[in-house]
């Protein structure tokens, strides 16, 4: 990460003068309940990350005032927004499908915001032209949305959101509708624009790469609740739920530590290098697992488990084995190693991990 706009360690994300976003969003939608607190400093980019149906979009829409909150409230730069209708909030929104006005040119799509905020037609167009220029779209100012590529349309949508100089920029899966190559380009550009943006930006995504590249801080939401928040590297190093562990590609267990041994809640013990006591997590990458066809003779019994192959899939240039048995785990190995071991669903294998390859941390 090369972002430099981090909040100073130990300081509260909003400034002493209440700058930035301070929100608690309680939303009831049928049987689904969202209850999320969100504090973001000016200049900070926060990504709401989570599985389908976690409540990310609901949270974003509640910030925009498009979904009523049944509890909590939204405070932006010290002012409560709860009684402010969506169109009067200093908020810019970019949706995954852009929602540009099809009958307006790119220029007039971008001019729409400033015009709504009271700028004259000429002034609004001047502002819009400036933004299109910044986005590298000056040559497409007169084009209608259907003549724009996905990447260009996404840039127009971003220009439209930024043209009103919002104090809160909301982006809902901004790259989801783009093909892989365009996505790469637009992601890099978006990152540049977000780095220049001096107000609060909140991004919703279920793509960990988008989140890690674009955001200073991740807020992981599962079933309507925040389950973990921190910088991308903090979260990648110390995942606290199965969803996050899978996202960052780690085997994760919960147990109770006593010295170098962690007794798992359901299963065997794992020997670690860290010396801890009480409730802990233990994590190790699938690449740290070594598999044997027969019980390795002379091997210590530490971190050695008898398992069965439940499934196999290719994972990049590796084979990932899904193992169950004494311990459930994922193991990565080369195609050659998989062939030599005769790995196939139902086969019995012995799995081992060195204590130095595990990482234990308080739960
Ligand atoms: N209009 C609605 N009425 C009732 N329930 C809804 C409505 N819209 C969404 N929900 C429910 O709210 C929950 C959260 O949905 P939301 O779209 O916020 O999740 P999400 O994290 O953005 O998911 P995704 O990544 O799939 O977009 C889901 O369980 C969904 O079924």
Automatic annotation (TrEMBL):
<dbReference type="Pfam" id="PF00005">
    <property type="entry name" value="ABC_tran"/>
</dbReference>
<keyword id="KW-0406">Ion transport</keyword>
<dbReference type="InterPro" id="IPR017871">
    <property type="entry name" value="ABC_transporter-like_CS"/>
</dbReference>
<dbReference type="InterPro" id="IPR050093">
    <property type="entry name" value="ABC_SmlMolc_Importer"/>
</dbReference>
<keyword id="KW-0408">Iron</keyword>
<keyword id="KW-0472">Membrane</keyword>
<keyword id="KW-0067">ATP-binding</keyword>
<dbReference type="InterPro" id="IPR008995">
    <property type="entry name" value="Mo/tungstate-bd_C_term_dom"/>
</dbReference>
<feature type="domain" description="ABC transporter">
    <location>
        <begin position="16"/>
        <end position="248"/>
    </location>
</feature>
<dbReference type="InterPro" id="IPR005116">
    <property type="entry name" value="Transp-assoc_OB_typ1"/>
</dbReference>
<dbReference type="InterPro" id="IPR003593">
    <property type="entry name" value="AAA+_ATPase"/>
</dbReference>
<dbReference type="InterPro" id="IPR003439">
    <property type="entry name" value="ABC_transporter-like_ATP-bd"/>
</dbReference>
<dbReference type="InterPro" id="IPR027417">
    <property type="entry name" value="P-loop_NTPase"/>
</dbReference>
<keyword id="KW-0410">Iron transport</keyword>
<keyword id="KW-0813">Transport</keyword>
<protein>
    <submittedName>
        <fullName>ABC transporter ATP-binding protein</fullName>
    </submittedName>
</protein>
<dbReference type="GO" id="GO:0005524">
    <property type="term" value="F:ATP binding"/>
</dbReference>
<dbReference type="Pfam" id="PF03459">
    <property type="entry name" value="TOBE"/>
</dbReference>
<feature type="domain" description="Mop">
    <location>
        <begin position="298"/>
        <end position="362"/>
    </location>
</feature>
<keyword id="KW-0547">Nucleotide-binding</keyword>
<dbReference type="InterPro" id="IPR015853">
    <property type="entry name" value="ABC_transpr_FbpC"/>
</dbReference>
<dbReference type="InterPro" id="IPR004606">
    <property type="entry name" value="Mop_domain"/>
</dbReference>
<keyword id="KW-1003">Cell membrane</keyword>
<keyword id="KW-0500">Molybdenum</keyword>
């Amino acid at each position: 990460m090369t972002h430099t706009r981090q909040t100073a360690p130990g300081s509260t994300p909003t400034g002493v003068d209440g700058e930035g976003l301070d929100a608690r969003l309680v939303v009831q939608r049928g049987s689904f309940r969202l209850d999320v607190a969100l504090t973001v400093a000016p200049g900070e980019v926060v990504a709401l990350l989570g599985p389908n149906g976690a409540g990310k979009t609901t949270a974003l829409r509640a910030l925009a005032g498009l979904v009523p909150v049944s509890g909590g409230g939204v405070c932006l730069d010290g002012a409560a927004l709860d009684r402010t209708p969506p169109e009067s909030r200093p908020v810019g929104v970019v949706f995954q499908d852009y929602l540009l006005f099809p009958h307006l040119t790119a220029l007039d799509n971008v001019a729409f915001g400033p015009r709504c905020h009271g700028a004259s037609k000429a002034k609004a167009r001047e502002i819009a032209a400036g933004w299109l220029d910044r986005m590298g779209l000056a040559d497409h100012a007169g084009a209608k949305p259907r003549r724009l590529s996905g990447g260009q349309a996404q840039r127009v949508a971003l220009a439209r959101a930024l043209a009103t100089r919002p104090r809160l920029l909301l982006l809902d899966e901004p790259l989801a509708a783009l093909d892989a190559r365009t996505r790469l380009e637009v992601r890099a550009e978006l990152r540049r624009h977000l780095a220049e943006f001096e107000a609060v930006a909140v991004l919703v995504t279920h793509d960990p790469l988008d989140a890690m590249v674009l955001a200073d801080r991740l807020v992981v939401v599962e079933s309507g609740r925040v389950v973990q928040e921190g910088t991308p590297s903090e979260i990648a190093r110390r995942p606290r739920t199965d969803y996050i562990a899978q996202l960052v590609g780690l085997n994760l267990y919960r147990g109770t530590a006593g010295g170098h041994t962690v007794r798992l809640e359901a299963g065997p013990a794992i020997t670690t290098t860290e010396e801890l006591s009480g409730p802990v997590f233990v994590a190790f990458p699938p690449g740290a697992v070594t598999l044997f066809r027969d019980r390795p003779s002379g091997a210590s019994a530490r971190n050695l488990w008898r398992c069965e192959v439940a499934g196999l899939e290719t994972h990049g240039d590796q084979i990932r084995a899904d193992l169950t048995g004494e311990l459930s785990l994922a193991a990565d190995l080369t195609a050659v190693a998989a062939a030599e071991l005769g790995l196939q669903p139902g086969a019995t294998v012995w799995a081992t991990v060195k204590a130095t390859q595990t990482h234990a941390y308080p739960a």
